[in-house]
Amino acid sequence: xxxxxxxxxxxxxxxxxxxxxxxxxxxxxxxxxxxxxxxxxxxxxxxxxxxxxxxxxxxxxxxxxxxxxxxxxxxxxxxxxxxxxxxxxxxxxxxxxxxxxxxxxxxxxxxxxxxxxxxxxxxxxxxxxxxxxxxxxxxxxxxxxxxxxxxxxxxxxxxxxxxxxxxxxxxxxxxxxxxxxxxxxx
Length: 186
Known about the structure:
Helices cover 15% and strands 27% of the residues. The N terminus is likely disordered. By secondary structure, the chain is α+β, with helices and mostly antiparallel strands. It has a single domain, classed as Alpha-Beta Complex (endopeptidase fold (from Nostoc punctiforme)). A 6-stranded antiparallel sheet has the order 5-10-6-7-8-9. The longest helix has 11 residues. It contains 3 helices and 12 strands, in the order ββαββααββββββββ.
């Protein structure tokens, strides 16, 4: 249950849509700053990704806001490495050299689909959270290696969002991740 967090005595499922919503709610409304990166009026690329992961329920509230190097450190724990051709909505890219990508030596953001990203940037005439094509905006323009990740537990995409009320008929058969759910677990 990697993508479930216990909050207020209830289990909540992590949500890619809530993660992307965090970005969309700030798009065009905040600026980029490496010095004032903890919001609410400015962020840098990695602080924006961390805040979105918290908003999406992938990281617990109160998690320290890291940088691109600390995102690399989540590989195998929260992040599963994928190829560029596998990328889809909600996947994360991290550009830079592992162990040496802090500060302006790296970049990160979230895919809104297989060809577009939402990220916090100061470049190309942009300042703040924007949606752009992925190509030439991920750090690849400067020759940095770019790594692609899927959030553990983010698959499969679900029809329902966190806090949606779902009514299940008593005579329905229910499965989660291929396992039959007993009546006691519904």
